[in-house]
Specification:
This protein is of the alpha/beta class. Helix content is 39%, strand content 19%.
């Protein structure tokens, strides 16, 4: 069986930057998981003594705190500043952009529509930058827009890891019903490239393995895209979740990986597939 990697996969700029920042501050704590990959977080914990705080109550004064790649709500950032902590901001610049767009357009009196998952930490951070929380709305499907009291002027941003085609559906629905719609395409370029590469490979593969955290939005998007073209597509966090049955009578195994998946995890998966397919 042949194994082929997607032409674009794995660590994006923001994740590489966040990990480098964390490694440069051994003994610090991250506020929330730095990235959505538990294996890499465990590596930082064991090798660099990077701790994890899930709430502000778990942070002590004068500690060094690394802000997660996905960012945090504006109010929590202000509280951290008041605690006399040393704040090390590892928020991805591509996540900072929709935060700034929401703050600006909200101040100018626009209703804010955010395409994304309301429970995702990135979206919790982005929506917090709206001046009026009652005039900011989070959606996943165009039909949800009908239930919101939007103004004639609307600004729309996207979670950085969402599918571009789905974002287009949201913006098209808004344009048909509102006088002025300001569209900020805040989907990360790495998301475009990884999704396109995964789709191209899935069209040819007999089996697709997508590697990444089960809580990672961009990884789940990759898996969903691969499923559209290759029914035998599987999402795994690491090599321990692979099954030999998946590779029986297969000639081409395609591999993609989410933006928070390190190369060493990808290589472990490849090595295990080689063993299972013998």
């Amino acid at each position: 069986m042949k194994i082929e990697l997607a032409s674009s996969y794995g660590f994006c700029f923001g994740v590489k930057r966040a990990i480098r920042i964390a490694e440069e501050h051994p003994g610090s704590k991250t506020y929330g998981p730095l990235i959505h990959n538990k294996d890499e977080i465990n590596r930082l914990k064991s090798g660099f003594k990077i701790g994890l705080a899930e709430s502000l109550e778990e942070i002590e004064k004068d500690e060094s705190v690394v802000i997660r790649t996905h960012g945090i709500p504006k109010r929590e950032l202000e509280e951290l500043k008041q605690m006399n902590t040393t704040i090390i901001d590892a928020t991805c610049p591509y996540v900072t952009t929709p935060q700034q767009d929401v703050a600006k357009m909200s101040k100018e009196g626009y209703s804010i529509v955010i395409f994304g998952d309301k429970d995702h930490p990135e979206i919790k951070g982005v929506v917090s930058y709206a001046q009026n929380s009652d005039d900011a709305f989070i959606v996943l499907k165009p039909e949800e827009l009908d239930h919101f009291p939007l103004k004639s002027k609307v600004a729309v941003v996207s979670q950085t890891t969402r599918n571009p085609e789905d974002f287009l559906k949201i913006t098209s629905a808004l344009i048909l019903k509102h006088k002025e719609v300001r569209v900020f395409n805040t989907i990360c370029n790495a998301t475009f490239e990884n999704q396109d590469a995964a789709a191209d490979l899935a069209k040819r593969a007999d089996v697709m393995i997508v590697i990444g955290g089960k809580h990672s939005s961009n990884t789940k998007q990759l898996h969903s895209i691969c499923k559209n073209y290759c029914s035998d597509s599987y999402l795994v966090e690491n090599e321990s979740e692979l099954s030999a049955d998946w590779f029986n009578q297969k000639s081409l195994c395609g591999i993609s990986a989410g933006a928070s998946t390190p190369d060493w995890v990808v290589q472990n998966v490849i090595d295990k597939i080689v063993l299972l397919s013998k």
